Amino acid sequence: MKVLNFGSLNLDYSYQVDHIVREGETISSRNLKINLGGKGFNQSVALARAGVPVYHAGLVGEEGLDFYDACQDCGIKTDYMRTVTGRCGHTIIQVDNEGQNSIVLYGGANQKNTKEFVDEVLSNFSTGDIILLQNEINELPYIIDQAFAKGMTIVLNPSPMDDRINECDLGKVSIFVLNENEGTQLTGKTTPATIVAAMEASFSNAKILLTLGKDGAIYHHGDEELYQGAFEVDTVDTTAAGDTFTGYFISGLIKKMPTRVNLILASKAAALAVTKPGAAQSIPFMSEVEIFSIE
């Protein structure tokens, strides 16, 4: 079994501010850091640091060559990464004094995938392999269709939620990982219980992982439903917490961990991630997660 993450590669421009800018307001930032990120890249880093060999497929612009070295340093396989003309995808991230964030995303190279490139990548994978997807790249409906036709297990994090998700055949998804806001946008429901119920009604065969930020997470599949609370830590920056949770939870599924153990592992990893600034660089290694005390 091989694991493929077909996902975004972004340069993150992170600004430290007293509060998230309001409509019509101009504020000064105390600091600017430029880091490697993107939901795709972050989740590949989380998988790799959790001990899962992962191939990353995606596109970078001409200023994104550092991604190749960073992936190799993390143990992420770069066989299916390509450089295209133009700008990388990038984000403008505001991080306030409480560590909460607000993000503006520019697609850049992430929106230059072609069906031919998708076919080239997927020709190297087969039945039983896992593909992890997010909504920061184009050709997502085609990727889902082709991966399903190959018999791959499809994991979807439908973030950021927009109308393009409605173009996807979500009935082909094996595992949904989504937060409360995305769940509301997808189902029209507004509470965790009703979101999970609506997801179950529409996608009865899929595993559903609903993350709730500081309120924890809910896992649902068939007759099994488990709640896992978040661990209290001193929050510095929440930027990659969800991506860390996703990567570690998928690693637990691959390793066939009991669901409760897996939820605790992913929650501990996400808690450690928010204690550090930045995105990918805040994602902990498995060795750190294993010794993290939850007392």
What radius of gyration results from the CA coordinates?
A: 18 Å
Note the gap between the termini: 36 Å
Low-confidence parts: none
Q: Strand portion, in percent?
A: 25-35%
Shape from CA axes?
globular
Rounded mean pLDDT score? 95
Task: Outline the biggest β-sheet.
Answer: 9 strands, mixed
Find the structural class using helix and strand composition: alpha/beta
Q: Helices and strands, in N-to-C order?
A: EEEHEHEEEHEHEEHHEEEHHH
The total of beta strands comes to 13
Percent helix range: 25-40%
Structure annotation, total helices: 9
Give, in spatial order, the strands making up the sheet with the most strands: 5-4-1-8-9-10-11-12-13
Structure write-up:
This protein starts with a strand and ends with a helix. The chain is built from 9 helices and 13 strands. The chain is an alpha/beta fold and about 300 residues long. A hairpin with a 2-residue loop joins strand 12 (about 215-220) and strand 13 (about 225-230). The chain is globular, with a radius of gyration of 18 Å. It is about 30% helix and about 25% strand.
Overview features:
nine-stranded mixed beta sheet; four-stranded mixed beta sheet; 295 residues; 31% helix; globular; alpha/beta
